[in-house]
Amino acid sequence: MKVTLNNIGKKYESREDFTLRNINLEIEDKEFCVILGPSGCGKTTLLRMIAGLNSITEGDLVFGEKRVNKLASKDRDIAMVFQSYALYPHMTVYDNMAFSLSMRKERKNIINERVMEAAKLLQIENYLYSKPSDISGGQRQRVALGRAIVRKPSVFLMDEPLSNLDAKLREHMRVELVRIHKALGTTSIYVTHDQIEAMTMATKIVLMNDGKIQQVGKPYEFYEKPQNMFVAKFIGSPTINLIKGKISGDKFISEDGLISITQKGENLKAVTDYNGKDIYLGVRSERFITGKNVEQFKCVIDVIEVLGKEKNLFVKLSSGKDLVITVPGHYDYEVGEKHVFGFDSEALHFFDAETKERIN
Ligand code: ATP
């Protein structure tokens, strides 16, 4: 089912200002939409409004063609999975999953069919008659998902459902969730502060900050074309390098004068209006190059972070400016060594120093 948010706003009575305002968003049928953002940006507030657990102060929430602002949560045909997935401890996994259907007085054979179907999808068939205390955290999280799946809702709402799991299990469950979403095709709205979850699972990411949407799009767009400096910094690890400077003719020159890059083609067109003005250049750590015919800058290696597959070189320019450069793990570098690097001209992001909006 399609979910549409038109100019949604939320003001908590105890607060002076709106927590959320002017939220416009279309979540298409079958989409896996991840609402991403730092703590306190309003993600949970938004999800709870969609769920019917928070009132909507202004705007329209539309499910399919129907405005549901005033519709009770239980009548919205949604199922929710939260970080704390309180299961009934005295009930078996099977009964936990069957519970909502039993309450709805669904026929026994239908309940059985749905629970078995969900158990198979979640690969928990072997634990159906165990109690929650006898299974692992990851398995319990699957039961919580199962409980939502058996209801065959039109929309799944998930709020940080993996954050209680250890790193390995989270990695595994990310793939599982993608598989389950593919199998069921149910519209899903998933809240997280974890960019990796967003990048790996979403068909659409909504990145929020301070109660406002910063960018909506496909995961790769966030990495390749961040719309402003907040997005550029939030997505990607190590954090994107940002270098303040000016445009002088066809050149970007860093404020310390140590980096100079000639602009051509589309990039040159984009920055011509900025001649003489302050601008930020953004470069992801893996987009530095070496070699002939490259405009290079000098630096000293300050710290090396060894990650196995790759190394992060934390380098310093003579002005004190720090940059991080990622190189393949098998390349030899030593702390204290002097090096020269250049920029891949295809991978330059420019931002207006005043508005922080993308230029190119
Ligand atoms: P987190 O990832 O930490 O859960 P979040 O992005 O989900 O953060 P929200 O929980 O939606 O953010 O909170 C957004 C803002 O609204 C915060 O400033 C928070 O203090 C405030 N807020 C949340 N719930 C209420 C409430 N019931 N009454 C008043 N203010 C609230």
Task: Describe the protein.
- The chain has 360 residues and is of the alpha+beta class.
- The chain folds into 2 domains: 3-234, P-loop containing nucleotide triphosphate hydrolases (Rossmann fold, 3-Layer(aba) Sandwich); 241-352, Beta Barrel (OB fold (Dihydrolipoamide Acetyltransferase, E2P)), CATH 2.40.50.140.
- The chain contains 9 helices and 20 strands.
- The protein has helices at residues 43-51, 93-103, 108-122, 137-149, 167-184, 195-201, 219-224, 229-234, 265-271, and strands at residues 3-10, 20-27, 32-36, 58-63, 66-67, 78-82, 155-159, 187-192, 204-209, 212-217, 241-248, 251-254, 260-262, 278-283, 288-289, 296-306, 310-316, 322-328, 338-343, 349-352.
- It is elongated.
- The mean pLDDT is 93.
- The structure holds adenosine-5'-triphosphate.
- Adenosine-5'-triphosphate is lined by residues 12, 14-15, 19, 37, 39-45, 193.
